[in-house]
Each structure stands twice: as structure tokens, then as C-alpha cells.
Specification:
Blueprint: E1 3-10, H1 11-17, H2 19-27, E2 31-37, H3 41-49, E3 53-56, H4 66-83, E4 87-91, H5 93-106, E5 110-115, H6 128-141, E6 146-150, H7 153-161, E7 170-172, E8 194-199, H8 208-222, E9 226-231, H9 243-249, E10 255-259, H10 264-270, E11 273-276, H11 286-294, E12 298-301, E13 316-319, H12 324-335, H13 338-355, H14 358-378
Parallel strand pairs: 1-2, 1-4, 2-3, 4-5, 5-6, 6-7, 8-9, 8-11, 9-10, 11-12, 12-13
Length: 383
């Protein structure tokens, strides 16, 4: 039985973004191991109930301590040497960095590296640290029988510019996909207010402060007819917002912090507009493609990853990053035009059906695993 190890940042990230891929691999007959930081025993149990083995990944998913980061490399090296996987699948730039180096050192037969957003460190112009990380990734990824999966063209072009990957070794999936049956199109519900939702970690780079500022700009005119809902938990990210900041800026009625939500379908069904003003270098934000599937207009930034969710003026609006006034103007336009919201919502659903179907994402990964395993068998494990 072929063995696949999927390395993700956390247990909840694996479940929210890669569960369907792991489940398909199990149904395809592979032994699947999930290595991720444990945050919740219930989530670990859910992964195990799928039929996967779970291994707790040490370290801090958002940490920047070099010694702590090197411990991740050492841990993965020992894990790969012990388990002898046929394929390792690294999800996220930190796991791609350390996992590629470990896989090269241990001579793992096949590697799939998934770049699902690079974060603010890789905003242009690149810092010296960002350039150094790309050089290390290039060293780790320079090997036979390795594939690199991207979610947007800008990330792919950056990696090609630094000589990390050739076209023949590139795969492309526009985001992590959405279950179009679970996230079924739902017409807006009748209520007295226009509800604007944001879903994501409470991190400054995700544009939370910009959205709160935009809401403040609209409050005098529309305080009785608009409501802003911030859905997402606190984070260990260095740019995370504190519970105190959220308490100070969310009044519980006009601007509401809803905390971490597991009922995303219900939350999106209840909203009228998805606002996602991130200037974090996204892959393709999953919360936004879920909103497109439900059938909601999108207001997001004209920045990497985010722009892939909107056809300007068709299913929503793109605004400049960090521009609270432009964000407020776009929200106001949708607030005052319910027919526009409905038309754009229908366009969002069509876009989701065409571009974000999770079945296509799962099929792509299944084919990638099969190709890597077949190639490694043909080469009899030689690198």
C-alpha cells in the first residue's frame, strides 16, 4: 500500500482546506498520515475517524524563531526517515520550505508542494528575508519527481522568476475549492438591515481594521440599516488583533465580533454582502469562494489572490488595498441597490460553479499523487 503524508499548519486548517483531499486518498487505497499542529482534541479525533493516522507537528505555525523553525525541519526529517512515505504533500510556504529540505535529505521518492498564499512577507518589494527563503525553497525543490501547486498566477510567476519551478512541474488549482452542494445557492433572506460579513482570522493584514474604519464612515448615514459581522477567531500571528481591540471597536449591534464560527453555511446565508479587504498575500481566500457559492456579491481588494474571486462589476467590486473610503463606497453602492446585490449574487454562484468546484480540486490532487507514485516506481526510488 502506497503511503502519503500530508503536512499542514494545524488540525483545523487540514479539516477546513484539505479534508476532502485526504478522504479521497484514503478511498484510493493509500495509507494517509496527517502531520499538523494539534489545537483541539476533537479535531484530531475527526481526522482519525476519517481513517488517517495523526501526528502532532511541533512548532508555531506563525512563529519566526529560527531555532524553533529548525526543529520543524529536524522533526520532518526524522518522520520521513521512519515512515518511508511514497509521497509527501506540503501545504503552506513554511511547510514547503522545511518539508522540501527534509524530503531532499531523506530522499523521499515524490513531493507535492502546495503554495496556498505567501502572506505579507512576500508583498512587493521583497525583503532580504523573503528572497533568502525563496533561495532555500529553490534548493529543496530542485529534484526529480516533484510538483508545485499554485492557486494564483502571481505566486507561480514569482517562483518561476526565482528559478524554483518549470512550467512542466506546475499545477494550478484556483483555491481549495468549495462543496457546491453543501454551499448551495440561497437567495438573500428578508430582514430589516443589510448585513455585511467578513470571515477570517482576526489579523490586521486581513483588512479587519480597514473594514471597521469603512463601517465607521457609513455609520452616520446608515447606522440603522447596516450591520457588520466579523466572523473569526483570535490568532497567534504577530499582527493579530487583541480581544481588547475588538471589544473596543465592536459595539455588539452595528459592528459585531462573532468569534470563531463553525456554521459557515448559516452565517453566509444570513448575510447580504461579503467584504474581504485583505492585503495579506492570499492564495485564493476560501471564505470568499464559499460566499460566491452561496450567491453573495463580493467586495474585496485588487491584490494577489483576492482579485481571483471577482469579475469587476459582474459579481462584485475590487477596491485598492488599505483604502477604507473606497471600501465604504462599494459597500454603500450595494446597500442602496438590492437588485444589484441579487444579480451579482447569481453571477457569484455561476463563477463558483465554473471555477471553484471542490471535485475538480480533489481530482487534481488524486492525479498528482498517482503520477508521483508511478514515476517513483518506474525509477525504483532513485532521485
Amino acid at each position: 500500500m502506497a503511503k502519503v503524508i500530508i503536512v499542514a499548519n494545524t488540525d483545523y486548517f487540514f479539516l477546513s482546506h484539505r479534508k476532502a483531499i485526504g478522504a479521497r486518498a484514503i478511498s484510493d487505497g493509500y495509507e494517509v498520515i496527517v502531520a499538523a499542529k494539534a489545537t483541539d482534541p476533537a479535531k484530531v479525533a475527526e481526522i482519525q475517524q476519517m481513517g488517517a493516522r495523526y501526528i502532532d507537528l511541533p512548532g508555531n505555525p506563525t512563529g519566526r524563531n529560527l531555532m524553533q523553525e529548525l526543529s520543524t525541519f529536524r522533526f520532518l526529517s526524522r518522520l520521513y526517515r521512519k515512515e518511508h512515505p511514497d509521497v509527501v504533500h506540503h501545504v503552506g510556504v513554511k511547510n514547503v520550505l522545511w518539508g522540501s529540505l527534509a524530503a531532499k535529505a531523506v530522499r523521499v521518492p515524490g513531493v507535492l508542494n502546495a503554495v496556498c498564499g505567501l502572506g505579507v512577507m512576500f508583498n512587493m518589494p521583497l525583503t532580504r528575508t523573503a528572497k533568502m527563503i525563496l533561495r532555500f525553497i529553490r534548493f529543496g525543490a530542485s529534484r526529480k519527481n516533484a510538483l508545485m501547486l499554485f492557486q494564483n498566477t502571481e505566486d507561480r510567476e514569482l517562483f518561476q522568476e526565482y528559478g524554483i519551478v518549470d512550467d512542466k512541474d506546475c499545477l494550478f488549482a484556483k483555491g481549495s475549492g468549495v462543496d457546491l452542494e453543501e454551499y448551495a445557492f440561497t437567495p438573500p433572506l428578508p430582514h430589516d438591515k443589510t448585513i455585511v460579513a467578513f470571515s477570517g482570522r482576526m489579523v490586521e493584514d486581513k483588512g479587519v481594521k480597514v473594514l471597521v474604519e469603512a463601517a465607521s464612515l457609513l455609520k452616520e448615514k446608515y447606522g440603522d440599516s447596516l450591520e457588520f459581522r466579523l466572523c473569526g477567531g483570535l490568532s497567534t500571528n504577530p499582527n493579530a488583533l487583541s480581544a481588547q481591540w475588538l471589544a473596543d471597536h465592536c459595539d455588539g449591534s452595528y459592528i459585531r465580533w462573532m468569534g470563531n464560527r463553525t456554521d459557515m453555511v448559516e452565517m453566509l446565508t444570513q448575510c447580504d454582502i461579503m467584504a474581504f479587504p485583505s492585503y495579506y498575500r492570499e492564495g485564493v481566500p476560501k471564505a470568499v469562494i464559499e460566499a460566491t457559492a452561496i450567491g453573495r456579491p463580493i467586495v474585496t481588494t485588487d491584490s494577489v489572490g483576492c482579485r481571483d474571486t471577482v469579475d469587476e462589476g459582474i459579481n462584485g467590486f475590487l477596491v485598492p488595498p488599505r483604502d477604507a473610503q473606497a471600501l465604504a463606497d462599494a459597500i454603500e453602492k450595494l446597500h442602496l441597490n438590492p437588485e444589484m446585490r441579487l444579480d451579482m449574487g447569481r453571477a457569484s454562484r455561476r463563477k463558483a460553479e465554473k471555477e471553484f468546484d471542490i471535485r475538480e480540486v480533489v481530482d487534481l490532487h488524486s492525479s498528482a499523487y498517482k503520477s508521483l507514485i508511478e514515476n517513483s516506481y518506474k525509477r525504483k526510488g532513485g532521485l
